[in-house]
Structures are given as C-alpha cells and as structure tokens.
Input
Amino acid sequence: MRARYRLLSGFVGSFSKMVKSARGSWVRSDVKMTGKTVVITGANTGIGLETAIDLVKREARVILGCRNMEKAEEAKQRIFKEAGGKDDTVVIKQLDLSSFASVRAFAKDINDNESKIDVLLNNAGIMLVPKGKTEDGFELHYGVNHLGHFLLTNLLLDLIKRSAPCRIVTVSSEAHRIGTPKMDFKDMNFDNNYDETVAYGRSKLMNILFTKELSKRLEGTNVTANCLHPGVIKSELWRHMDGSSKPVRDFFVGTFVRWFGRTIIHGAQTNIYCCIAPEIKDVTGKYFSDCAVASENSQAKKDKDAEQLWQVSLKATGLSEA
Output
C-alpha cells in the first residue's frame, strides 16, 4: 500500500510539473488562492489593479499598498464589483514608495497586523518622469522603482520567511535593454547628464539585479524571487510623455503604443502567472516575459553588479546587513 502511495505521489508530482498554467501570453489556469494573502504595491490602477481583481476571483485576500487613498478606495470598490469578495478580502493601506518613512510605516503595519504573506508583488513604478528627487533625496526612478521596493522587501523579509512557501515578484521591463543601460555606481542619482529614458531603463535593470541577488540570499528558505516584463501596455505610465523635451521620440513611441500596445488586462498576465503558477513554485532568480522564463541582457547577468547594488542599497536605505 505504501509503495502504491509513493508511486501515485510521484506521478502526481511529475504531472503537476508538466501542467502549464498559461497558453501563449495568457493565463488559462483556474488554480485557486484560497487562504492566501497577497501584498501588491501600486494596485489602485493599471496592471496592479487587474492583478488584484484576478487574485480576488481566485479567493485570495489582497492588501493594496497605494499612495492615493481616494483612488485606492475606488479601486477597492471596483474589485468588489468585478470579483466579489467580503469586506476583509481587500485591504487598502497607504504606501508612498518615494518616502522611506512611508515605506517603514507600511511595513510596520503589515508586520504588526498580518500573520503571513504568501506573495509580495512589487508592482508600483514610475516611468520617464522629469528630473527630480524623492523625499529622501534620491533620483525619482532610482528611489521609487528600486530603493522603495528594496527597503519594503527587506523590512517584510522575516515575515515572508516565516510564511514559506512564499513568492516575491518584482515588475521590471524590457526597457532594461534600451540603449544598454549600465550601472554607474559613481552617479546613482543621475546628477550628470540626466536622461529620463536611460534613468528608467537603469531602474528596471536594478529590478533584475535586485531579484538575482535576493534569490541567492533566500536559498534554502523555500521563498522564491523572480521578476518580469509585462509587455508594452496602454496605461497611465505613459502620461509623462506629454509635453516632454523629446517630442519626436514621444510621437513615434506614442504611435507605437496606441497601435500595438497591450490592453491592461493582457499586460497583467505575467504578473498573475508569476503569482499563481504551480509549475514555477521552485523556480527562482529568473526573468519572465509572456508567462515564460526569458533571457535578460548581459548587463543584468553581472553577479558583481548585483552584489554591489545590494550593498549600495543597504547604505542608501539605512539598513544593516543581516
């Protein structure tokens, strides 16, 4: 009897690894997330909101970390309308990734009031913004897209480890290839020759390097860390192109996005896949696109840069090495 059980268990395990939760760039699995808690940053609009709607339909409990609480409440009501759920199914909390104080307050709230986190989706981001600084004095793309999520993830890491098995998913972009951005550890704030396109691409490169180093540090914990490209999406992220200093670029890019950009629902699919797909439960340190493992560029494969970025980020955020 025991031999039959082991044989059956092995067959089920092998079968589950062969099952594909997506066909092409669309998630087709009806896998449930019952009893699971998911934290999503920037979930009041765009692919973050669509991901939240999908996960609530799968019976997950979702915590939305949003900067604008009025929009967060509107998002919560939309989720209830489209996905159903009870009052405690969707929780909104204020989170401004451009402020370390806000990140720390949000993390403290989660650590004090939540018993577990099954998925942390670092989804929020800004793109092509004019030159500016965060509350703590860091270039906006660097501060919001990387440092904010670096700090948040590390502050929640003890709870995440206690919640294992768990997934950490970070939204990056194919923009990490544009112009082949390189890490410039001598000018992390882009004080010299600022270019919003390069600054955005560099921040997306940081997302991949962060994921690579994080996955190494989580070996043996049953916590995975992956990142992804959601696709070129018709979303509010492009709003900063209006009236920018590069009208020719903006015209051609804007035309491409209008004609060929994905819908927000389509853009959310790789988010969803990385959060729910059972076949990648043990996959870590990878870059995904179109619901499959993809290849990042050579700059994103530099272990030395990943380690150095980690150390620089620790210093910038005021964290100490564990």
About this structure: The radius of gyration is 19 Å. Residues 1-18, 234-241, 251-261 have pLDDT under 50 and may be disordered.
